[in-house]
Inverse folding.
């Protein structure tokens, strides 16, 4: 009997050892940590004003060192917020599988109005439309957005043009830019204080596709190019006084990294370019509403989650070194944050 | 006796953990390349010795519900030269519409070589057309790519431009493999999951460069996968094997694959050279009602043999 018990005990121990070896390997898997929610962390330091910022389809408000989930309805992916100057409201994109819509939302996350009608009830999916990168002019009324129109449902051709309209009227009453065909088009239109429009224009030359920053002083006028094809610069962010542009450039990196660059803007002339961060995956720069610095997104390491970073005095010669603001989050790198002064 | 019992039980525990990887490895690796009988006058090429530069043909296919079994086209063909000593890598994308004599007979788009004769025909067709010797091939299907990227936790890619497509095949996500869905991949650096990455590398309708743009994006994502794969270790093999089980095959043996893993982690982006066969290397034409790319061999062969030894 005793011998039987010893054998049973040994067999149990061997079984436990086998299980332990199995779990030993399981615990040594690469730790590609899932991102946490912004509301469960605090940023490393307090940024000026209020940011509206998107992570995994949800928009959060960052104010006074604390994130708040705006609890927007979970009916799609919320992204690309942009403040409405002179108000505490913002516009944002709601993306679904086949189309995207623009909504007007107050600072508490209450939807005030659905501004666009881009979905079709037809089974012809090509009748749906995309709208991205909404922006509202300093007058709080003039609206700009990248819109995939005009297009023909029988053609493969589809690209964005920047359109202008009224926040309280027709959003796309005037086509502002004429995109280069089959490139993806014109994106990220930012209204300027002088009534012009700054945007990224995609073009193709020598078999390569690239982006150039351009200013279009009036609707469908000739674009004035600020950057060349080789630099491949896009994602412009204009300082509140319109005197400095921040941008993301990819030229010369083999399409595997980017650099964050700033340059002064005088009229339609860009000054010398100053690289703030090189050899990074920097994305979506955004100026603080008081112009005291810029934020941008970049991953900390190869795990790939994009964090918020900050550079103070980015417009001047005394720009500080980049400081990491958040850790363990996963911001939408294609969705520049909106920055409100209060 | 007791010690032996514990050793056996420990081995059993490890075996149980790695069983999916072992099963997949046995099923998916070691497929020999059958080149058929060489021409009497030709000298049979010899595979590269260990440590010497070697050539791999990377193949990517639609293998969704539209296709049965292994009867698939290759949407992606990337001829890759790897020098283990210098860690230098050259990736030459072969446009899928390149009009070439197929090893199975006749002349057609090069993407049909795999359809008519599997990996053997794809390898032999490329060897015959480009006058190179291919040491190994690796094939991956659509779902395998999605699963692999998701298993890696996604990849970071700098999207070259807005990739818009209103006629993207809904063959992975929907019930009808012949239906369309809309795709909009926004430009710039971003974290992509498997589905988004596939849309990025697969879409071509909205790109003036058509297959050339797509080839460039495929190379980008391959390099992004390589960057992310550096994070993986031995313990991740069962998960990766599960992810790719039915969607991967290669002629490389398990030891050869194992020998490649450390090499992959040593290669830096600076030592990877990307080559596309843009015009004037190729030019558009219409043959029998289908759009094809006519290769200019007078230009292609010297360019190819800069990086890949002539066979």
């Amino acid at each position: 009997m005793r011998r039987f018990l010893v054998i049973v005990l040994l067999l149990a121990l061997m079984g436990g050892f086998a299980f332990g070896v199995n779990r030993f390997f399981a615990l040594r898997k690469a730790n590609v940590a899932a991102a946490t929610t912004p509301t469960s962390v605090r940023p490393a330091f307090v940024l000026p004003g209020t940011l509206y910022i998107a992570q995994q389809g949800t928009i959060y408000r960052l104010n006074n060192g604390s994130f708040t989930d705006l609890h927007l309805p979970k009916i799609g992916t919320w992204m690309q917020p942009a403040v409405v100057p002179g108000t505490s409201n913002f516009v944002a994109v709601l993306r679904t599988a086949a189309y995207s819509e623009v909504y007007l939302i107050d600072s508490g996350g209450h939807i005030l109005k659905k501004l666009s009608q881009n979905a079709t009830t037809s089974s012809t999916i090509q009748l749906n439309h995309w709208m991205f990168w909404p922006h509202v002019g300093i007058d709080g009324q003039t609206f700009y957005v990248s819109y995939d129109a005009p297009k023909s449902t029988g053609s493969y051709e589809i690209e964005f043009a920047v359109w202008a309209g009224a926040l309280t009227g027709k959003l796309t009453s005037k086509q502002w830019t004429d995109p280069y065909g089959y490139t993806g088009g014109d994106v990220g239109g930012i209204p300027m204080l002088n009534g012009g429009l700054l945007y990224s224009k995609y073009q193709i030359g020598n078999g390569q596709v690239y982006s150039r920053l351009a200013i279009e002083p009036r609707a469908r006028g000739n674009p004035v190019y600020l950057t060349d094809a080789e630099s491949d610069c896009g994602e412009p962010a204009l300082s509140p006084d319109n005197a400095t542009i921040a941008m993301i450039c990819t030229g010369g990196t083999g399409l595997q990294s980017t650099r964050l660059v700033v340059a002064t803007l005088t009229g339609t002339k860009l000054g010398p370019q100053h690289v703030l961060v090189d050899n990074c995956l920097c994305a979506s720069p955004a100026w603080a509403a008081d112009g005291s610095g810029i934020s941008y997104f970049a991953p900390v390491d190869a795990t790939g989650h994009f964090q918020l970073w900050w550079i103070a005095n980015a417009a001047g010669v005394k720009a500080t070194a980049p400081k990491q603001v958040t850790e363990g989050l996963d911001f939408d790198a294609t969705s520049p944050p909106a920055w409100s002064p209060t | 006796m007791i010690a032996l019992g514990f050793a056996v039980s420990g081995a059993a525990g490890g075996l149980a953990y790695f069983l999916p990887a072992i099963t997949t490895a046995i099923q998916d690796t070691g497929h020999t390349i059958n080149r058929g009988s060489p021409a009497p006058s030709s000298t049979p090429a010899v595979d590269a010795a260990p440590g010497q530069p070697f050539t791999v043909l990377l193949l990517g296919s639609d293998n969704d519900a539209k296709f049965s079994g292994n009867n698939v086209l290759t949407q992606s063909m990337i001829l890759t030269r790897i020098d283990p000593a210098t860690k230098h890598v050259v990736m030459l994308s072969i446009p899928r519409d390149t009009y070439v004599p197929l090893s199975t007979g006749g002349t057609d788009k090069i993407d049909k070589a795999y359809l008519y004769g599997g990996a053997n025909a794809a390898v032999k067709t490329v060897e015959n057309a480009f006058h190179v010797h291919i040491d190994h091939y690796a094939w991956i299907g659509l779902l395998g790519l999605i699963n692999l990227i998701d298993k890696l936790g996604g990849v970071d890619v700098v999207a070259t431009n807005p990739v818009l497509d209103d006629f993207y095949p809904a063959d992975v996500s929907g019930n009808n493999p012949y239906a369309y869905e809309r795709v909009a991949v926004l430009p710039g650096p971003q974290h992509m999951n498997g589905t988004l990455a596939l849309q990025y590398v697969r879409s071509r309708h909205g790109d003036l460069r058509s297959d050339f743009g797509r080839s460039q994006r495929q190379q980008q994502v391959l390099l992004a996968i390589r960057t992310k794969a550096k994070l993986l270790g031995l313990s991740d093999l069962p998960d990766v094997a599960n992810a790719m089980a039915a969607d991967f095959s290669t002629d490389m043996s398990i030891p050869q694959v194992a020998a490649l893993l450390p090499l992959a982690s040593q290669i830096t982006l600076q030592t990877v050279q990307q080559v596309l066969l843009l015009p004037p290397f190729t030019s558009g034409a219409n043959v029998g009602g289908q759009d094809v790319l006519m290769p200019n061999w007078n230009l292609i062969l010297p360019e190819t043999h800069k990086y890949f030894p002539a066979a």
Notes: Helices of chain A lie at 2-27. Residues 2-27 of chain A form the longest helix (26 residues). The two ends of chain A are 80 Å apart (CA to CA). Chain A touches chain B through 73 residues (CB under 8 Å).
